[in-house]
Amino acid sequence: MAKVLVVDDTAALRSAMCRALEDSDLGVQVIEAQDGAEALTLALEDGIDVVVTDINMPRLDGIGLLRGIRGQRDAYALPVILVTSQGEERQRQASFEVGASDYLYRPFGDDELRDRVRVQLRVRRLHGELVSAAAERTHLENHDDLTGLANRRSFVARCAAACDEARASGGELAVALVAIDRQRSLARDLGVGNLEVVLVEVAAQLQRHFAGATVIAHLADGKFGVLSVGAGGERVREQALALCEFLRSHVMGRVVPGQIHMSVAIRALAGAQSPSADVLLNEVESLLDRAMAAGGNCVEMST
Asked: pTM for the full model?
């Protein structure tokens, strides 16, 4: 249920607005405040959807209340309707400069009040839907559908930011690439569905064994990336070895009898040693190729 905050220092006028909103098809809960100072705290609490406020009030007037709200909430996040009289044209103009969503001239009827509130509720709802859709689109653009981990695009961007930060601050970072050995034969032996179960399980165990990592990603086709900022190479190596042992002894057995093997490549850097993200990732890819060419089931590391 939407919540409307009604603010007016005249009790009779405030009560009349509250009744008009409550006795309507809006389905709103109405909250009252007798001046701007009382209303500001209420307005900034989660749950208030629209504010309807008089301009002339003691302690904190409507313009001051509007300024306080706009310091924390924009017009889409919290619409504010100012109630003015015909003789307050200058104040009305100032209210729009501060960020008023709409205004009402006294005297006004109940239907006009309801219509103005209805419009602002609709605008707020539509804006919320747009924000949610944009967030969902951003999530899909940066995450792998199967595992829910970050994707290659997101991983490369985070590595680039981490390299820049390490060069500037002298901090440590480590990048690990983890690949399932014998990917093609596993796909043939297990089938696509069971191989996807393995990938999801590997993703879950990566999150468990690298719980403190900055980002964990599924790059593609059974290859995963781990970025740990502020972590030395030996620590990442220990985590990788623990992961490999767990996968060998547990994960494959959940799907079919046998073992799953991993190749791991780790490159650790500190401070000014940090190259660009492209160079760093190429170096780790080369280490991974070396591990897989040697038969897999091993960890290659460079510091």
From this structure: 0.61
